[in-house]
Amino acid sequence: MTDDANKMWGGRFDAGQDAIMEAINASIGFDQRLARHDIEGSLAHAAMLAATGIITDSDAKAIREGLLTVLSEIDTGRFRFQAALEDIHMNIESRLQELIGAPAGRLHTARSRNDQVATDLRLWVRDQCDAAIAGIRALQRALVDQAEAGADWVMPGFTHLQTAQPVTWGHHMMAYVEMLERDASRLADARRRMNESPLGTCALAGTSFPIDRHATAKALGFDRPMANSLDAVADRDFALEFLAASAIVAMHLSRLAEEIVIWSSAQFRFVSLSDRFSTGSSIMPQKRNPDAAELVRAKTGRILGSAVGLFTVMKGLALAYSKDLQEDKEQVFDAADSLMLVLAATEGMVRDISADPDALNAAASSGFSTSTDLADWLVREADLPFREAHHVTGRLVAMAEAENKDLQDLSLEQMTSVHEAITAQVRDVLGAGNSVRSRTSYGGTAPERVREQVALWQERLS
Ligand code: ARG
User: Fold this and answer.
1) Measured from the CB, is residue 114 less than 6 Å from ligand 1?
2) Phi and psi for 16 in degrees, rounded to 5?
3) Of 117, 143, 158, 294, which has the highest C-beta tally within 10 A?
């Protein structure tokens, strides 16, 4: 072996690598983010090797102390990462060798970088699931606070972005709380499934050393060791599940962001954003732009892009490990960073947003939003079949529209001219406030139902 060959695996190589080879092969530029988890895995592995008598206690002790030194060098920015050493695993092992000499060479007994990297990334993604769930909880709390403040503020509910029926601000906020709950449960579910240890499956086939994979699994907080060594080194389902669940979170936040963009526009004026989460225009002094909401909406593309990217990397890979798998990390890192950012930005926006109850109410009362209430009244009070009630209501809407009025502004004479069974009592259901108060069915928008949900969620999130 010449001096040029790689000192970690260069036994059968004479010459060094081409610079382009090093550039395409090295992952240290990004996988240094796995350092802490890599060291955790190595500490567990070394302790197990000693406990099973595969290495001596004194070697294990030297390895342990050396690894802790490496960790502190990394934490304090003193560690020198080298592309020539390819990845985080070999950078750390090489430094360990410098620090403790011969015993460092025993750490890699009954282990391969294949099970090592699978273990590191699982640990990393597991932490991200916890962080994302915490971010979701914080956002849910902000939404519940908004819902509590505006449990009975009436606003237009839309279908096709056309005024449909009045709803309450609180009800609208609580819709997102429910969506986010499914997100949290998807992440928790993925976390549960990923919580098995690949460590000790080695290159692909297991090992002839008498290792204790249950012990390392336990030391790393995994529920159990993975049962099949080929699967263990080849699997990235855990990363895909995290990315897929993250893409759904991002899609939900993007829908809320889109609503914030619409609501804060001069045409709607339902809400105003705080200075903290909006920007001005360098040329148009009147502008107050919802940039944070727009970027939350846009980052969905990145996060879904990462999911698609890794799916595409995985789809044609024969078992077990191929270097393609090295491309899993940047997708996961980028998506996780983006996810934490959009969760925090959305929480900040929701906390700061101030809705204008009068503007909401005015919009809720226009657009014949209580037509369905009128039709329902005709069914309930005048015993009309719903189809006929729908028709009668349609004629009343046409009449009001022709006179540029709202339904509640038609006189009783005008109404009875369309159907004789209509009485003055009909006015009870015609205002938007009356409409929402009447929708008391389970899951409905009535303020009393919203307050029940708010109380329930305050309890759950406390
Ligand atoms: N840096 C590699 C990765 O991220 C580690 C595993 C390398 N294994 C190998 N057989 N070359 O996947």
Assistant:
1) yes
2) -75, 180
3) 143
pLDDT tens, position by position, 162-178? 989 999 999 999 999 99
Contact predicate 104/66, CB 8 Å: yes
Can you tell me the distance from the alpha carbon of 39 to that of 92, in angstroms, rounded to the nearest whole number? Answer: 8
Q: How far apart are CA 291 and CA 257, in angstroms?
A: 10
Q: What is the pLDDT of residues 214-252, one digit of tens each?
A: 999 999 999 999 999 999 999 999 999 999 999 999 999
Q: Which residue's alpha carbon is at the smallest distance from atom 7 of ligand 1?
A: 113
Dist. CA 113 → ligand 1 center (Å) = 6
* Residue to probe by mutation, ligand 1, list 81, 201, 326, 328, most atoms within 8 Å of CB: 326
Residue with structure tokens 């009343």?
A: 396
Q: At what angle do helices 113-149 and 35-51 cross, to 10 degrees?
A: 130
Indicate whether residue 119 lines ligand 1 (CB < 6 A): no
- Buried residues in 283-316 as b, exposed as e (16+ CB within 10 A): eeeeeeebebbbebbebbebbbbbbebbeebbee
Give the helix/strand (H/E) hosting 214. Answer: helix 213-219
Q: Residue of the nearest CA to atom 1 in ligand 1?
A: 87
Query: Could you tell me the sign of the dihedral formed by the alpha carbons of 270, 274, 280, 286, in that order?
Result: positive
Please give the positions annotated as active site. Answer: 160, 281
d(CA 323, ligand 1 centre) in Å? 6
* Ligand 1 in reach of 100 Cβ (< 6 A): no
The atom number, within ligand 1, closest to the CA of 325 reads 12
Q: State CA 22 to chain mean position distance.
A: 34
**Interatomic CA distance for residues 369 and 374, integer angstroms:** 10
